[in-house]
Amino acid sequence: xxxxxxxxxxxxxxxxxxxxxxxxxxxxxxxxxxxxxxxxxxxxxxxxxxxxxxxxxxxxxxxxxxxxxxxxxxxxxxxxxxxxxxxxxxxxxxxxxxxxxxxxxxxxxxxxxxxxxxxxxxxxxxxxxxxxxxxxxxxxxxxxxxxxxxxxxxxxxxxxxxxxxxxxxxxxxxxxxxxxxxxxxxxxxxxxxxxxxxxxxxxxxxxxxxxxxxxxxxxxxxxxxxxxxxxxxxxxxxxxxxxxxxxxxxxxxxxxxxxxxxxxxxxxxxxxxxxxxxxxxxxxxxxxxxxxxxxxxxxxxxxxxxxxxxxxxxxxxxxxxxxxxxxxxxxxxxxxxxxxxxxxxxxxxxxxxxxxxxxxxxxxxxxxxxxxxxxxxxxxxxxxxxxxxxxxxxxxxxxxxxxxxxxxxxxxxxxxxxxxxxxxxxxxxxxxxxxxxxxxxxxxxxxxxxxxxxxxxxxxxxxxxxxxxxxxxxxxxxxxxxxxxxxxxxxxxxxxxxxxxxxxxxxxxxxxxxxxxxxxxxxxxxxxxxxxxxxxxxxxxxxxxxxxxxxxxxxxxxxxxxxxxxxxxxxxxxxxxxxxxxxxxxxxxxxxxxxxxxxxxxxxxxxxxxxxxxxxxxxxxxxxxxxxxxxxxxxxxxxxxxxxxxxxxxxxxxxxxxxxxxxxxxxxxxxxxxxxxxxxxxxxxxxxxxxxxxxxxxxxxxxxxxxxxxxxxxxxxxxxxxxxxxxxxxxxxxxxxxxxxxxxxxxxxxxxxxxxxxxxxxxxxxxxxxxxxxxxxxxxxxxxxxxxxxxxxxxxxxxxxxxxxxxxxxxxxxxxxxxxxxxxxxxxxxxxxxxxxxxxxxxxxxxxxxxxxxxxxxxxxxxxxxxxxxxxxxxxxxxxxxxxxxxxxxxxxxxxxxxxxxxxxxxxxxxxxxxxxxxxxxxxxxxxxxxxxxxxxxxxxxxxxxxxxxxxxxxxxxxxxxxxxxxxxxxxxxxxxxxxxxxxxxxxxxxxxxxxxxxxxxxxxxxxxxxxxxxxxxxxxxxxxxxxxxxxxxxxxxxxxxxxxxxxxxxxxxxxxxxxxxxxx
Length: 1065
Hints:
By secondary structure, the protein is of the alpha+beta class. Helices cover about 40% and strands about 20% of the residues. Among the domains are: about 745-820, no CATH class; about 840-915, no CATH class; about 960-985 and about 1005-1055, no CATH class. α15 (about 590-595) crosses α16 and α25 runs antiparallel to α26 (about 835-845). The longest helix has about 45 residues, at about 905-950.
């Protein structure tokens, strides 16, 4: 393929780099003929001079170091930097002696000179012939070097040049033609054992297999056409380059350029080529590109073999560097960068005056011109290159370039979308849709919406269906996409595609091992069911709902859509206990409205823990009439738009052993008939295939009980709200659960009894309103029985409230009596004006609650009517009881009766006279006690005064302890008791006992000690009581005589502060 047909772009930014001038020269380092060798690597640029010096430059082209390669000033003609290391190989020669090869360790220096350390020096042999070195190639570990000479000889050097452990040289190839290029392609890693050396001369291209021992095999001629110096380069094979596999060629090869074309060679021979007319001066590899230096086309005039050979030798010996490429400085040299993989020209520039050298480093490509100028070629970012291609509508090339560059998938899909938009604008709908489909990704939600909007035109409905189907296949479709796809199927009336879409989605989930659809299913089940219901495809909707385990939806369709609530209840009977509960509660109200008896029975079975599911058993037999029925059924569905026949897809009779129980209710036959009409949809779960269903059969559906599944029924109160407006069924449910459920918690029993009590009163109220006294008595009797027999399970406040609201006084009285609320019973009688009931309550509960008497006194004197109804004798009896029990003070009685003018003084005359006489007697007694206390106090005070102020006369003659006559020494106490000193010192028993303390002043009369201890204890108790204010308050609250309690505690010192006592002491 000719390069003339390739598209050309400007994928590189070209700028001139201006290296700094040397301090000792007016010329730049790249100017004139001062450069004899250039190489790069390891983030540095290396320049050799004819003077024998080597310069090391950084990325700013500032010299980092300059050192001589030899002491004789021999020109440096070849430089090779070992990539990834600090090693530099230099070859110096001047044709007066054999070339000198040195290996430099740039990271090491000589201690004396500070120059880089030379690791090894080797004189390269050429059989004693003085010819210049024309080409050099080396392995990455320097274990093998190939050196070519202008006389056609190739010397192979094998050894450890890095550590200078010796090296062997061998001439492995000779030719009459000068060697132009050498290359190990690709450079093998260390330790491979052998490498292929490619050799080019002016007349041939050869390959030579070398061994690790430095031996060379027989050269293999790949082509009898050679190339010029610099016109062969090894193919680079690395993680970022695909140039080695261009055109499907082997990667162990080289690229060769001649005046007519670009050729690829491998060890097997010549590969592909690209026609490209024009002279070639140099070829090099940069990333994925092939870079060509093409001298001016005027040089084509010199086409003679002599002239070509002349130019080649001038370039070999280095004398053509300055001007051999062109003698006219105004002529331009073309520099071309090619991508032979994608077949385009990445950059093409004209270099005035010719090119001296080309090197790449710092991720850029550089050209050294013969005029000393340095040009930098910086590759544009991928986004910039893609934008250039977008502007020229070259989307296929942009896609190939992005794929080759390893662009991330999301950005690659963006290019697909751009290309699809371009095709859409050109009205190439089908092709555009293919690229839109390729652009679908996880992060393309916004683009998906725009694509859908474009194809919403009814004429493009087919493309839209294709796009939506792909969204579902890739699992990124949302519910709105499913809705749109199903709408498209419905709009096109394509029932076959609808069935296929459902079946493929379900088959995919079945292969995953899921019987029922889940949230990770291919099909959005909720949306699909909704769409089928809206479109009238009820068979598909019921099937999808059952398959997804959406039992509520199944019941909803059967009841709400089809109005078959008896069938819906039959379906519930097939469900397992855990599933039937939620569905039963959701549809309980409408089921109780439509079929109350059957629904109540299901409630009773479930909440009594007696629920047992049933399973549907299908029996088929071949029958011609069934075939007619199936076709007729299918035809009706198509005509009514109510769905379509789906061969091979099951409906709502799955073969599951733990679903459904209908018992003996009437709707089991109706449900069985319904299942019979749905048998054409029984396929996968019933174990039938599409072929089996195609054989028309007579179908019979029977129900069998499954084994009972243990479960724990929920609390009965969870079902209470379902029975609103259904009191009869509610009472039946509550009574049955209470009777049939074996284990009920106390709180559940309380709920049921309280609710039953309320329902009984409700029914009694209805009977009273209807004039049914017998019915009222029956329901009130049941309510009273609950209070009497289940007192501990009925909440008192609830019963009182319900009884009050229902005007059920018997219940109120009974509960209050059970709970000991007798005061409330009396109050309820007085509030209702029932004087007789109040007196009966007083006589019945007066002993239990004495405070009823003060309340009764206030009630009887509240009005003349009440007093007249009770009688004055009853009032006197109440006053007598109050007086006897001390329930009220006389003053309180008078105050109570004085609140109104009902009671007269005559009614209180006897009560007041007795009270006044009793009070007088108490006053007289108290005065006598006061006089005796005063006399006793005066006597004690006089005794204390005599003891403290007057001498005491001790007249005792006998010891109070031993009873013998007193003998000195004697101890006398102020209490008139005398003792022998020995009787006090000697431990002895006495009526009171005594002891001796450490000090004499602490002696205490043994006879009086017990009485004194008692007095001290009483005094201490009084002191402690004086500080116990809580005890004083409690005694005052419990006392009937408050004044007496206060006086008693004052006598004990409760009103005297501690400081006053101490001061008085």
